[in-house]
Design goal:
Length: about 350
């Protein structure tokens, strides 16, 4: 789509796309920022990657590529622009840097962390590998670069089961999301144990004959808030609703939902099906973004919490990242090379 020629044209395009999900006064306020970002992006030859959890006024206006972590990882591997501005959280920008070491990668917020990524360290992974020698480590892409560097392969919520099965091993260490691990264990027919909370420590090889997956007790502070009671209350009021749950939700919530899949899988499900109404159990802004893409479909709202880390990425900060070349992401080369092996193996599986 051609870049708008002025702020008024930018505003009108935003209204056309977002009038049902964003108040008009907000669109008027943000149109100038959007116009200036797109102008400066073109001037600098930059490229903007936007995660599905970005606020609608940003997500639908300035990214050159939009998607979930796997899609954006693929784009980051082949993108031609420089600098790369990653509208997501820090571990995503690190992945872009891992795949593009020669390019400048900018994160619009100084912190933009992640409760899940922060739940495990590289030392934690090293200790697990010592306790379970020879067992391959699958690490969710929602981790920092030094954790990826200790892993055999990365995965996303969309390809986690395929990654686990690709290893063709009796046992696997799956880190760090507890609920995703439980859901993948169920899907792949594996028993799972969490050694950090087990009184016996689980060090022996005998344990792995009984438990085919070793997990970790990390959680997403957004998805862990959804409950079975939430689903039951919604179904009481809207019996014909189709409920979609992200696999980072608790397994009991996934079990009572109609569909579970990655952010991209949920988007495709809504696009390709025709239900009376939908409810997405995931981050709030994603629900708004899906609603904007499907104005002919009724989307219910059950917003437990906006991700406080994704919420740090604003249009103003995105503009400042372009203006001042901030905040630059750096990954030490020794860590980058090892992390890239794990990411490349994930991308090869798809």
């Amino acid at each position: 789509m051609a870049v708008a020629t002025d702020v008024q044209e930018t505003y009108l395009r935003m209204v056309e796309k977002l009038k049902e999900v964003v108040p008009d006064f907000e669109l008027k306020q943000k149109a100038e920022l959007v116009f200036e970002i797109n102008r400066l992006k073109a001037e600098k030859g930059a490229v903007i990657l936007g995660h599905n959890y970005m606020e609608p006024a940003l997500y639908h206006t300035v990214p050159d590529f939009r998607g979930d972590s796997l899609e954006l990882s693929r784009k980051a591997a082949v993108v031609k622009g420089d600098p790369i501005v990653f509208c997501g959280v820090r571990f995503m920008a690190e992945t872009a840097k891992i795949l593009n070491p020669e390019k400048t990668v900018l994160l619009p917020a100084k912190e933009a962390g992640c409760s899940l990524a922060g739940s495990i360290t590289a030392e934690d992974v090293r200790q697990l590998k010592q306790r379970f020698p020879g067992v391959p480590v699958v690490t969710y892409v929602n981790t920092y670069a030094d954790v990826k560097a200790e892993s055999d392969i990365c995965c996303t919520s969309g390809n986690a089961a395929a990654v686990v099965e690709s290893l063709k091993t009796d046992a696997v260490i799956f880190l760090p999301d507890e609920y995703l691990a439980r859901n993948v264990a169920k899907e792949t027919g594996r028993h799972i144990i969490f050694p950090i909370s087990h009184p016996n420590g689980l060090r022996s090889a005998d344990v792995l004959l009984e438990y085919a997956m070793v997990g970790w007790n990390g959680k997403c502070e957004v998805h862990e808030r959804f409950t079975v009671e939430d689903v039951q209350r919604v179904r009481q009021q809207f019996p014909d609703v189709v409920i979609l749950a992200h696999p980072e939700c608790p397994p009991e919530v996934v079990a009572v939902s109609d569909f579970s899949g990655s952010t991209s899988a949920m988007i495709k499900y809504v696009e390709r099906t025709h239900a009376p109404r939908y409810l997405l159990l995931t981050e709030c802004s994603m629900g708004d973004n899906v609603a904007a893409e499907n104005p002919d479909k009724e989307m219910l709202r059950l917003c437990s919490v906006r991700c406080p880390h994704m919420n740090q990425i604003t249009l103003q900060d995105t503009l400042d990242a372009l203006r001042y070349n901030r905040y630059q992401i750096e990954v030490p080369e020794e860590i980058r090379v090892r992390a890239k092996r794990a990411v490349d193996r994930m991308l090869a599986i798809g």
